[in-house]
Amino acid sequence: MKKTKDENTEEQILEAAKNIFQSKGMDGARMQEIADKAGINKAMLHYYYRSKQLLFEAVFNNAFLLLAPQLNTVLNDDSSIEEKIKNFTTNYISFILKHPYLPNFVIQELNRNPEFILKMKENKEFPNLEKFKKQVNEEIKKGIIKPIAAEQLFINIMALNIFPFVAKPLIKAFINADDETYLQLMENRKTEVSNFIINSIKH
Amino acid sequence: MKKTKDENTEEQILEAAKNIFQSKGMDGARMQEIADKAGINKAMLHYYYRSKQLLFEAVFNNAFLLLAPQLNTVLNDDSSIEEKIKNFTTNYISFILKHPYLPNFVIQELNRNPEFILKMKENKEFPNLEKFKKQVNEEIKKGIIKPIAAEQLFINIMALNIFPFVAKPLIKAFINADDETYLQLMENRKTEVSNFIINSIKH
DNA sequence: AATTTTGTTAACCAAATGGTTAAACCATAT
DNA sequence: ATATGGTTTAACCATTTGGTTAACAAAATT
């Protein structure tokens, strides 16, 4: 059971590394802890990934590539702004409830190492605002929504959706909520947030 | 010049520690680096603060105590909801532009160690939502603002104000902005954000 | 002026940490 | 069965890191 050529050792490592890196960050993570969680010898980490840095990058890229398509929903599909916001909000919040460490991990590590995002930008799937901008300006011209800079609207959408997860401990403390209450609050936000945004911009 | 009883050595350490901790976090910070930045011997850090943990807590408490009063503006003064939102938004964004590392530092370290906030909660000045809730519900009853849960409104205000700073590298990348453009965007948000919120809730 | 207290430094220490190595293991092709 | 080549392990290594110590210098106290 042990010495079989385990095709999935590499994946077990990645899964363990994901767990440790996402909850403790690059600096807080320990190679030994990752090995323990994966149930293998520490040398294997280096055998498959060479170094802590490279293992980390593998985890980070995976995380980022999971988030990017979510954003593209808001940017590149063909429905109206109102539809987009509704869809994105419910989808994104559901998505994050399944991957609670993701946004904080990505944001934290990008702040630690801002040049990192340059590599991401080269990716074909990297979110691009052009279409969204055009659409916002059109709907403004048509009188469907009130004037607003597309960039600011985009930031607002991101903020309202992502922040409550990034700042979870802070929010729990201010609201005086236990985990269940917090979760309920996030559930409610699936409609709350889109209503809030649409109320603000709809004519 | 060297062996004078420098009354401010302790503060030099705290200032250096603030810089290093806020940009690298607890795990990424090195005692030697803090000593170097303070221009003193590493042993002094321990002489004045005993351990890395205690030095970190001194920095963290200072940071938190700087942020709390900002929030109390929105919660405990006597102006209308609309006034409060306007004041808070301009004040808070100005404040953060002067202390750019603050929000991310606090959020990051609270996520790393959520029990930490329990100590904060004991503090008399810890933000309390009660008054704000009452006021929101009154203005709803009077028909000044549309129905909304006070907690959700509070989260929205926080999100719209804080998130753009926490996620700076992400936003710069999506918007394709250099530092100057980013700064301009944040300046604009001083009015943008309050308009956005008020548009959404005002009857 | 002598002595005690406080501040400061260089040198040191033990533990932790990322990484390496040499040997063992094992499935498979020969 | 045996050689082969990827896989795995235990032991090891060099460096980093938080923390300590002993000696010394400058004030403060007597």
UniProtKB/TrEMBL annotation, chains A, B:
Residues 30-49 bind DNA. Keywords: DNA-binding. GO terms for molecular function: DNA binding. Transmembrane segments: none annotated. Coiled coil: none annotated. Residues 7-67 form the HTH tetR-type domain. The keyword Ubl conjugation does not apply. Pfam families: TetR_N (PF00440). The keyword DNA-binding applies. This is TetR family transcriptional regulator. It comes from Mariniflexile fucanivorans.
